[in-house]
Amino acid sequence: MSSSICGDIDAQPHHVVLFPFMSKGHIIPILHLTRLLLHRRLAVTIFTTQANHAFLSESLNDTSASILDLPFSHNAPDIPAGIESTEKLPSISLFHSFANATKVMQTDFEQALQTLPHVSFMVSDGFLWWTLESASKFNIPRLVFNGMSYYSLSISRAVANDRLLFGAELDDELITVTPFPWIRVTRNDFEPPFTEPEPKGLKFEFTMKAITATKNSYGIIFNSFNELEPLFVDFFNRKYIPKAWSVGPLCLAEPPKVRNEAHNNYKPIWVQWLDKKLEQGNSVLYIAFGSQTQISPAQLKEIAIGLEESKVNFLWVIRKSESEISDDKFEERVKDRGILVREWVDQREILMHESVQGFLSQCGWNSVLESICAGVPILAWPMMAEQPLNARMVVEEIVGLRVETCNGSVRGFVKWEGLEKMVKELMEEEKGKEVRKKSKEVAQMAKKTMEEAGSSKCTLDLLVDEICGKKT
Q1: SS3 405
Q2: Tens digits of residue pLDDT in 23-38
Q3: What is the CATH architecture of 262-447?
Q4: How many Cβ atoms from other residues are within 10 Å of residue 380's Cβ?
Q5: For a Cys-Cys bond, which of 22, 76, 148, 386 suits 101, CB 3.0-4.6 Å?
Q6: Residues spanned by CATH 3.40.50.2000 within the chain?
């Protein structure tokens, strides 16, 4: 590529700007991508806001990456002042208002870009649509970071393009996806604006801005790998623009934590608890529904009863806002085989722990990938966003089980009896052994793709080479 884009390739190291959306689920994979780019001898500057700085800094304190803070003085009337990440929103219903408000950072972002050494390319989150305008002003190629699977994005687009959701009478009526006739979805697998025949309003406008900016960008980076979903990678690159690049699973770029046995007191209590279960020869079910999911008190009560009745060992990470289970004797009764954690945890460290043999998950894409890489099978319980599609992928295309709702609906209520049944099936029965065996095989496949000559490693090398005219 010409020197007008990347400058003199024999001069300073090529410089990359990264800009994650202000949400931990979006920030973490970008932090992993940072390590891969630094490993290729690129200089990296990451943009964030003051309230998110410490989280990024702590993760990258052993690297040469630079972190620049932008002021985020939004004027969204429904979002309290001082909120700079989606985890702090009073309700997830404010998500689109928050995402829309990020545009107030554009002027400061562009001023900061002018102070940096020459930027070879930019990677910004798909939700930060306005960064394309900034990139274009300074002739910087913009790559869109996409936090979804090819499967969920391909199916969403196919369903929208063919208007498949508007022929069904019922929200849970099965609909065949035309390009993938073996896949059947329901209207309940999707959220507005996909479910609206004539969409309008903030959600639709924001979605269209993000889609349009993506189409006009240099390319899309997917946190996935070709071997995991080859049909959907091929479909996406045949049908849509811009070109998609598979560079994941990015979580494998982060070296696993090594805890020193001599300093056991420095281990978090949950790691010590897992170590104890391993010594006892007990397998553990890990339970987490993500930092954005809002679960009703009635549903929390059913989860607690189901776990208690299942008699399995479990580690349950629970949001502080949901931390009071209505039965205050629950923790006392299960204390020998269950622990509730009410703080942020290193999920990958938990999944990599030898004692953990199952994961009850909402199927956010990061969680799916971390589980795949750890070789831990998923018991899928999707809650929001594209999670129902991820759950279908896990169960139907990869390997995993799914909770049973009391009315069979994708978004139905789960009674404790149904949860107990599926937890036992995953942790104790023959079906669980089968999915565990397959999970270990998929984990090996994931590991190989990031190694020398692996497909994702080669793809990122090719991408850097294409944009920077630089052999890596």
Answers
A1: coil
A2: 999 999 999 999 999 9
A3: 3-Layer(aba) Sandwich (3.40)
A4: 24
A5: 76
A6: 3-248+450-468, 262-447
